[in-house]
Design a protein that fits this description.
By secondary structure, the protein is α/β, with parallel strands linked by helices. The protein is built from six helices and five strands. Helix 3 runs parallel beside helix 4.
Length: 129
């Protein structure tokens, strides 16, 4: 990632029911992309409301959450705002989850939320379309 990309003002929405995961993801992106506005949602329905209101550029999305799954949330979010780039960031690494992500054209990154996995997510989010 170039210095210019990290300094561009962007909006990131972190969607994860785990507060610890949200804190790790936020710390990584705050460190690597200090100009970004970062918001958090603990559930899919909350994420949809926030995305409609604030129009994030990027979303990191967990799969297993209470209520609506991350796949369902991402699909609805993309129907409303097709330009949002979504990374599925999940510990649910079974082949079925990978296939579901691929069928929705979502980038899949396995948890835990480590420096390496979050760097994969950031590289995808900043890659040219």
């Amino acid at each position: 990632m170039s210095q210019d990309e990290a300094l561009m003002v962007r909006k990131l929405l972190i969607v994860d029911d785990s507060k610890v995961s949200r804190m790790r993801i936020r710390a990584f992106f705050t460190s690597h992309c200090p100009q970004w506005t970062i918001q958090e949602a603990a559930a899919g329905d909350e994420a949809l409301v926030m995305a409609a209101k604030d129009q994030p550029d990027f979303v990191t999305m967990d799969v297993n959450m209470p209520g609506m799954s991350g796949f369902e949330t991402a699909q609805l979010m993309l129907m409303r705002s097709p330009k949002i780039r979504v990374v599925i960031l999940t510990a649910n690494i079974q082949e079925g989850s990978r296939q579901a992500a691929a069928s929705l054209r979502l980038h899949f990154v396995a948890k835990p939320a480590t420096e390496a996995s979050l760097q994969q997510a950031l590289d995808y989010l900043l890659a040219p379309l």
